[in-house]
Amino acid sequence: MEDYGINPQMMQNIERVMFTPQQIQTRVEELGNRISRDYAGKSLVLVGVLRGVIFFMVDLMRSIDIPLEVDFMSVSSYSPESRDMGLVRMVKDLEISITGQHVLFVEDIIDTGLTLHYLLRTLKTRQPASIEVCVLFNKDKRRLIDMPIKYKGFDIPDYYVVGYGLDYREKFRNLPFLGILKADVLQNGID
Ligand code: 5GP
């Protein structure tokens, strides 16, 4: 397996690379071009949830060539069980007003859809002119709530993936590719 010059200590926790940095970059640019065309002549606000979305947001912004604003929220789960039920608490709200604005909700990964459902519901109460979803990695195997996703990067199978901003216990976000975490890391922790 190509190691992309990554330190072996991190690489030994990775089962395989699902998408290379080049594959991700190409797809993100395609999404950015579509978004630029669709929102031409409008003002756009990109909204993301920290911290997993950081790589995607930066690359996507660079690929969009219309005027835009960007802002972030941060959520936290009350407990792992409550996260599974989509009960999240907003710990950092947006700083800009989205009322009357065209909002694009940018997400790194959607699994059950519960987190996104909760956040969209909250944002809609602020009466944006429109609100659409852009997700890079879509795992729909465990989807509990049907989500209208206008812009989608990749459909992926139900593995725990890390890299390109995505973490396992806050680690591995800095891997430049999307990789499948080894099953024994999920069971026994990081080597
Ligand atoms: P959902 O509410 O859609 O089930 O969960 C969404 C959140 O779960 C994502 O924003 C992400 O934080 C986390 N998540 C779900 N699947 C994965 C995965 O395969 N890898 C990582 N790193 N996080 C995931």
Task: Report on the architecture of this protein.
By secondary structure, the protein is α/β, with parallel strands linked by helices. The protein has one domain (20-156): 3-Layer(aba) Sandwich (Rossmann fold). It has helices spanning 8-11, 21-38, 54-63, 80-84, 114-124, 183-188, and strands spanning 14-19, 44-50, 68-77, 88-92, 102-110, 130-138, 151-155, 161-162, 178-181. The strands form two sheets. A six-stranded mixed beta sheet has the order 4-3-2-5-6-7, sandwiched between helices. The protein has a three-stranded antiparallel beta sheet with strand order 1-9-8. Helix 3 links the parallel strand 2 and strand 3. Helix 2 packs across helix 3 (54-63). It is globular, with a radius of gyration of 17 Å. The relative contact order is 0.19. Guanosine-5'-monophosphate (5GP) binds next to strand 5, helix 5 and strand 8. Residues 52, 86, 109-116, 139, 160-162, 166-168 line the site of guanosine-5'-monophosphate.
CATH topology: Rossmann fold
Q: Major beta sheet, specifics?
A: 6 strands, mixed
- The spatial strand order of the largest sheet comes to 4-3-2-5-6-7
Q: Give the name of the CATH architecture.
A: 3-Layer(aba) Sandwich
The small-molecule ligands in this entry are: guanosine-5'-monophosphate
Put the structure in a nutshell.
The protein is of the alpha/beta class.
Features:
191 residues, alpha/beta, binds guanosine-5'-monophosphate, 6-stranded mixed β-sheet, 3-stranded antiparallel β-sheet, Rossmann fold, 28% helix
Write the layout of secondary structure elements.
Blueprint: H1 8-11, E1 14-19, H2 21-38, E2 44-50, H3 54-63, E3 68-77, H4 80-84, E4 88-92, E5 102-110, H5 114-124, E6 130-138, E7 151-155, E8 161-162, E9 178-181, H6 183-188
Parallel strand pairs: 2-3, 2-5, 5-6, 6-7
Antiparallel strand pairs: 1-9, 3-4, 8-9
This protein binds guanosine-5'-monophosphate (5GP).
Guanosine-5'-monophosphate (5GP) is lined by residues 52, 86, 109-116, 139, 160-162, 166-168.
